[in-house]
Each structure stands twice: as C-alpha cells, then as structure tokens.
Amino acid sequence: MVDILDEIEACVPALRRYARALTHDADRADDLVQDCLERAIARRSMFRPRGPVRPWLFTILTNLYRNARRADRRREEHVDLDAVPEPSTPAPQPGHLALAELGRAIQTLPLDQKEALLLVTLEGLPYSEAAAILDIPQGTLMSRLGRARATLRTLTGVAAEPHLRTVK
C-alpha cells in the first residue's frame, strides 16, 4: 500500500510547474508549493481516499494562490518605475520569441481562464479533474478554456497553437 506522504512527494514536480506558471515568479512559486505541502501534510488526516491525492493538492495550491492574490490586491503595492531595471534583450530565435510572447499573453488572462488553461494544457489533466479542482461544472471549465484560447489567438495573432489544444 502506498503511503499518502509518498503520493504527495510524487506530486511535487507537477505542483511546482503549475505554481510557476501561475505566479511567473520562481521564488513565489516555491513558497506557494511549500505552503501547499505544509497544509496538506498537516491536514492529511482530512484526506478521504475517494481518488488520487493529486487533485486534492492542486485544489489546496489553487486556493492558496487565490488567497495570496486577494491579499496582494488589498496591499496595493506601488512600484517606482525608475527602480525597475531595463528589460533584457530576448534571444533572437523565432521559437523563443513566440514562446515568450505566449507566456506574456497567458499572464494577461483573467485568473479563472488562466487556471483552467494551465491545469488542462500544462498539467494535462482531464476536464473532469480540472473542473473538480477549480470547483466548477465541466461546462464552465470548457467555456473558460474556449475564452482563454480565443484571447490568446487575438493577443498573439496566431491560430490555435498545437500545444494549447487538448483532445479529451
């Protein structure tokens, strides 16, 4: 029998990937994953094994991220534009530029669309599992994915990218 701690440990790479895609900041992502793991381990007795641990962990991480965003908005940090360093020059490779443009476009999506898109496309979760993590009906998830993809097509000026399409 597999111990729940072993299952949690096996999910760490996926949690880190999702957190980095959500936050676009490696340090914040690592903090988010650490908070998620601390909460999951502290509350592992609350986990009811009706299914895999992974969706439970993604739900915890998603909720922690949402709470952090709400707290950030309340603090309303002001940035001195003179203190912001000049952006570096991106590599000239077209593929790198397109990927960077797509990454920036994903960051501009509304949170609900970004969460849905990342769970389905980055993590490869089935629609039913992603909808359960986000606590929304599957049809709502599909609508959010459709709006996210349409927005990305508009922002990047590119037809649907093969890596953003999912077949379920």
UniProtKB/TrEMBL annotation:
Keywords: Sigma factor, Transcription, Transcription regulation. The keyword Hydrolase does not apply. GO terms for molecular function: DNA binding; sigma factor activity. Residues 100-152 form the RNA polymerase sigma factor 70 region 4 type domain. Residues 8-61 form the PhyR sigma2 domain. One of its GO terms (biological process) is DNA-templated transcription initiation. InterPro entries: PhyR_sigma2, RNA_pol_sigma-70-like, RNA_pol_sigma-70_dom, RNA_pol_sigma70_r4_t2, RNA_pol_sigma_r2, RNA_pol_sigma_r3/r4-like, WH-like_DNA-bd_sf. Belongs to the sigma-70 factor family. ECF subfamily. NCBIfam families: sigma70-ECF (TIGR02937). This is Sigma-70 family RNA polymerase sigma factor. It comes from Devosia oryzisoli.
